[in-house]
Amino acid sequence: MHVRHPAFGVASPTVSEIRARCDLDARRLWDAAGSLAGWRVAQEEALAAAPYGGPHPEAGAIEPGDLARAIVALHPELLGPTVSGAPLDRAHAIWRQRIAGASDLPLTYSWGRRWAAHEAAGASVDAGVLLRSLPDRTLWTLSALDPRCAEGLMTARETYCALFDQLGARGHVGVAVEPAWLEREPDAVWRERLVDGPGFAIIGEACSGRRALIRQLRRLAPQTRGVNVDNWHGGGLPDLRYRARPDAVPASIAPGLVCAWTRVPDDPQLLRYAAEMALDPDAAFQLILVTTGAAWARLREVAPDLARWRVVPMPPLTDDELLPIWLCQRPYVEDVLGERIDLGRLLPLAPDRLRRLLARIDPHDLTIPEHGHAVRLREGLAELLCERSRATRRQLREHPALAAVDAGLSGDGSR
């Protein structure tokens, strides 16, 4: 069982390890985050004494929201000009006065795994790195400080996009943690397909691993070729050398690139145009499509040139593959929801429940986060998140291969 992920077998850094890598400004922010976490935990413990259901399971740790409050308290200018005015001023005054002594709290599990996935061990940490460590749900919270949202001049999504663009322009936005990859065919097979022919079509039903494979293209393609997955941005007018005439052509359909679509657009002219370019040997362009068998037949009717594409079938998952594939979703699900979903929670579930829950995990374009996706994911996995039963140690020992994958994705025993 070969699993690939940047954080596989990598231990989560500790609070003190990250602090030791910080420059002066970053260390001041990091210490303030720990102090504000201590204040928050004290409040949550007081609430837990009352009949309010108790704190979150990871409440006794430093979380991304604590760092966000520290940035608002000490360096709000890092957020850019759109986050300013009365809402920010109030938050700045409140959180600045609550910074006190240091705390000895650890990192939350999910944030630690995000650090392990995105930041090289030992690399220096400045304020930009701290901003990149914030998951998408924290950026949404910060964007609410934009006064245009409170005044009804912009929607929550518009103010979030404004903050995202400002931070992204400085390289201070960290993308979501991707799912792990369970290798079902050797990498060499896929690299051969990426250098041969106009492209290929990956055909299979939902939950067969088609889109997980597409996300590996950036790793598998030659470094000399740009890979775009569901990228509809930019572009311009079509090249007049080709017969098809779409109204506009995304920048991802251009010579020398690899374009992959997990959702084929409802635009026959654009589909025909992309197929023509892929068949032009001078363009060195490849088109890779992800679809079902029935949809593939319709696409070939719309663009007859697609009959020359190689078809790569993705067989449905067997019951034995369900748990390994589910474990591979852990890094993504844990980063989006901020909760640990390990083998102990998954092993007691019957195959039909695993299939049903797996179908509700649909990693979107990981370069453009969307708050609504996190809400839908939490709702879709509600029955798992509320599940109380856990596998016993004896049951876990009966599945050593799964336990090894689970430990590698958790970073357990990696020190």
Secondary-structure map:
Elements: E1 3-4, H1 15-21, H2 24-48, H3 64-74, H4 86-97, H5 109-118, H6 127-132, H7 136-143, H8 147-150, H9 156-169, E2 181-182, H10 187-194, E3 199-203, H11 210-214, H12 217-220, E4 226-229, E5 257-261, H13 268-279, E6 286-291, H14 293-302, E7 310-313, H15 319-337, H16 343-346, H17 351-358, H18 371-380, H19 382-385, H20 393-397, H21 400-410
Q: What structural keywords apply?
A:
two-stranded antiparallel sheet, single chain, alpha/beta, 5-stranded parallel sheet, 415 residues, Rossmann fold, 3 domains, 47% helix, 7 strands
Overview of the molecule:
There is one protein chain. The protein has 415 residues and is α/β, with parallel strands linked by helices. The chain has three domains: 3-169, no CATH class; 181-313, Rossmann fold, CATH 3.40.50; 319-410, no CATH class. It has 21 helices and seven strands. The protein has helices at 15-21, 24-48, 64-74, 86-97, 109-118, 127-132, 136-143, 147-150, 156-169, 187-194, 210-214, 217-220, 268-279, 293-302, 319-337, 343-346, 351-358, 371-380, 382-385, 393-397, 400-410, and strands at 3-4, 181-182, 199-203, 226-229, 257-261, 286-291, 310-313. The strands form two sheets. The chain has a five-stranded parallel β-sheet with strand order 4-5-6-3-7. Strands 1-2 form a two-stranded antiparallel sheet. Helix 2 (24-48) crosses helix 3 (64-74), helix 15 (319-337) crosses helix 17 (351-358) and helix 15 (319-337) runs parallel beside helix 21. The chain is globular.
